[in-house]
Amino acid sequence: MTTALPKPAGLYRANIRPAQILVWTLLLIGGLIMITPLLFMFSTSLKTAGQVYDLRVIPAAPTLENYAKVLLDGRFMRWFLNSSLVAVTVTLSNVFFDSLVGYTLAKFEFRGRYLIFLAILSTLMIPTEMLVIPWYLMSSQLGWLDSYWGIMFPGMMTAFGTFLMKQFFDTIPNDFLEAARIDGLNEFQIWWKVAMPLVTPALSALAIFTFLGNWTAFFWPLIVTTSKELYTLPVGLSSFAVEQSIQWELIMTGAAIATLPTLIVFLVLQRYIVRGVMLAGLKG
Amino acid sequence: MVSTPVNTEGAAASRPTGPVWDRLSMKTKRLIWVWSFLALPIVFYSVIRFYPTLQAFWLSLTDWDLMRPPVFIGLGNYERLFSDPQFWKVFRNTFTYLLIGTPISLLLAFTIAYYLDRVRFMHAFIRALYFLPFLTTAAAMAWVWRWFYQPAPIGVINDVLGLFGLPQQPFIRSVNQALPSIMVTSIWAGLGFQIIIFMAGLRAIPGTYYEAARIDGLGEWAILRRITLPLLKPTTVFLVVFSSIGFLRIFDQVYNMTTNDPGGPLGSTKPLVLMIFQTAFSSYQMGYAAAQTVVLFSILLVVSLLQLRVLRDK
Description:
The complex is a heterodimer.
Chain A: H1 17-45, H2 65-72, H3 75-107, H4 113-122, H5 128-142, H6 148-152, H7 159-170, H8 174-182, H9 187-198, H10 200-215, H11 219-224, H12 233-244, H13 248-283
Helix pairs in contact in A: 1-13, 2-13, 3-7, 3-10, 3-12, 4-7, 7-10, 8-9, 10-13, 12-13
Chain B: H1 4-13, H2 19-23, H3 26-59, E1 62-63, E2 71-72, H4 76-82, H5 85-116, H6 123-131, H7 138-148, H8 156-163, H9 178-203, H10 207-215, H11 220-231, H12 233-248, H13 252-257, H14 272-281, H15 286-313
């Protein structure tokens, strides 16, 4: 990460102190309200069935019993692995193909370039919902229903990612690429070894978005999977919650298991993720 | 799309040395690289994006239950849809999510971003509090909110209302309150992203503009109105369109918060995508569902284009 976003000018330092303190306090209270659902989710996941109605955020006698119960059941492990496999594979595919296509459209002159760019961009206008019926039909004809590939195939490349990467490849100087060409690298090597390392901030933004989108995806996995062994975490959790109906401590444990990985990753990589979202939002 | 050169040249590019390859000109070699890079993506976009799009339009003109082959019925599905009171209810629900959800969430997001941007003390911590919900799984958090909305003694919100002696609320069990309750969940889930994007937009405004305005003696309110908001317009336009599309396509929250009667009570929360889901995958009326997806597509297109026009012109 090399580019630092400009800090706002220190114009407001002269403001009146009490007003600042008030604003700060209000922002903090608002922020605490924002994470209240998360706090209650975790806190309830640590409570026994008898303590669920106890409103204290810090459980009187925290226990990992619910986690043991939910995880030993086996299904959550499986759904967790399914979600990880799907999200990681789709992310790798997007990082590879979206940047390859973005690079080609940004750095090569050829007939049809503009047409292809427009064609890919135009798919941004088509909502997933419109494609699911044809995808479902295609999957049933090709035997992709209820398979990992069936869950993954619609997202292997995205117009958003391609557009994002093209925007970034547009900014890298051609001199670097020419130098590599003179050094005898072939075009694939130039892309992979020279151009890719120059756009790592964009790559991490793309990876974060793709992973998050696929980790939390619900609509298509709900449609394409029928056997419980192939559910992803959100779909599995949904069916699990329906089945538990009133055992809220177990439902909250399931929800916590679905939510924890992304939150932990965020806490570790906070700076990169916020910057990645800003980058993608501004360029996208 | 171009498909013939892809196959032959893709094969040649897989062995980029040898007598034939060496005799090619620089320009031809580049072209071979280009089309071999694009070969698989062109197949992907044709088969997974363009063909299904056309197929959706075609299916919307057919009667099809998955068992027998589709039967062409012209605009029959659309006639049926537009004369179905259920559809108009769903239509109204969908636009309620959009017309109330988008302004509220953008106003909140901008206000928070505007003030958060100036906060130095514990900036990253407070920003994280607002941003965390964006990273959660909608399906999972819908269940947390569903639990919050339960009647006392289970539901946290009613418990708290009880503590203050306020009347209990039915929330998602009531025809009137269910949709706003789900909307709150949805606004909550999207707010963090909007705040971050607004902050990025605010930081992209050069500090010199503010300095100049200060020298001219503009007050804080005038600076906000005459400098910050106009310069922030691209960000705002992006977020308006992005958030509108999100509300028009709302599904995860509604589905998970009303599993006992999806879209209920009495269809009062049902958005278009849930109607599509049920028509296609509960009653297997694929042609009718395809017509609904085409209507969704048209709504999305019209709303986005209108917003882009109106907001750009102002």
